[in-house]
Design goal:
Layout lengths: L2 H28 L24 E7 L5 E7 L1 H9 L9 E11 L7 E14 L10 E7 L2 E2 L2 H15 L12
Antiparallel strand pairs: 1-2, 2-3, 3-4, 4-5, 5-6
Length: 174
C-alpha cells in the first residue's frame, strides 16, 4: 500500500467513529429549545432574537381585546411575503406581539402601546404539524405558555377564515 492510501484510511476510521457524535450534536441543536417554555399541544417556543426580526405588519384590534399588535417574521417569512410565495415554506416563523393601547400622554390623538398582553408564535413545519396545515402555534403570557384549551382554538380560527392564504391572517405591509 502507498502512503496516500494509508493516509486516506487513517481519516476514514476517525470519521466513522465521529458519526454518532455528529448525530448527537445534530439532535442537541434540534433540542436547543428544550429548556424553554413550550406550547402544550405543539411544543412551539418563543424564538431567540425575534425582537430583531423585520416587521411584517402592525394591526389595531378593537373590542373586546383592545390591542395594538405587531407581527414580525424571520428571514424565511420575509422572503416568502416579498415573493408572494404560498404556501409558506417550512422554516417560516411569525411572532405577534400584542399590547393594550391607549392615548399618548404626550400627544392625545396618538395611540401608544401600554401593558404587554401576549406573544404568539406560528412555525411552519409540514412534517411536524401535518394535522394543522403544517403550522405549529404557541401563545405566551409573561413568558409562560397558555393552557391547552386556548391552544386548541388557534388552528380552528385560522382554518375557518384564512385557509386560502396558507392559514395566515397577516398581510405584508409594504
Amino acid at each position: 500500500m502507498s502512503m496516500a492510501s494509508d493516509l486516506r484510511r487513517s481519516w476514514l476510521v476517525p470519521a466513522a467513529a465521529l458519526a454518532p457524535v455528529l448525530a448527537f450534536a445534530a439532535m442537541a441543536l434540534a433540542r436547543a429549545d428544550a429548556g424553554k417554555p413550550a406550547s402544550p399541544l405543539f411544543g412551539v417556543t418563543v424564538p431567540d432574537g425575534y425582537r430583531g426580526w423585520p416587521l411584517i405588519a402592525p394591526a389595531l384590534e378593537g373590542e373586546p381585546l383592545n390591542e395594538l399588535r405587531a407581527v414580525l417574521g424571520n428571514d424565511v417569512a420575509v422572503r416568502a411575503y416579498a415573493g408572494g410565495t404560498l404556501p409558506f415554506p417550512d422554516g417560516t416563523m411569525l411572532v405577534k406581539l400584542a399590547w393594550q393601547h391607549g392615548p399618548s400622554p404626550d400627544f392625545e390623538p396618538a395611540t401608544v402601546p401600554g401593558r404587554a398582553t401576549t406573544v404568539q408564535v406560528m412555525v411552519k413545519d409540514a412534517t411536524r404539524y401535518p394535522e394543522t396545515g403544517g403550522w405549529g402555534f404557541g401563545r405566551f403570557i409573561d413568558g409562560k405558555p397558555v393552557d391547552e384549551a386556548q391552544h386548541r382554538t388557534c388552528f380552528a380560527c385560522h382554518e375557518a377564515r384564512v385557509r386560502e392564504r396558507d392559514y395566515v391572517f397577516t398581510r405584508y405591509a409594504r
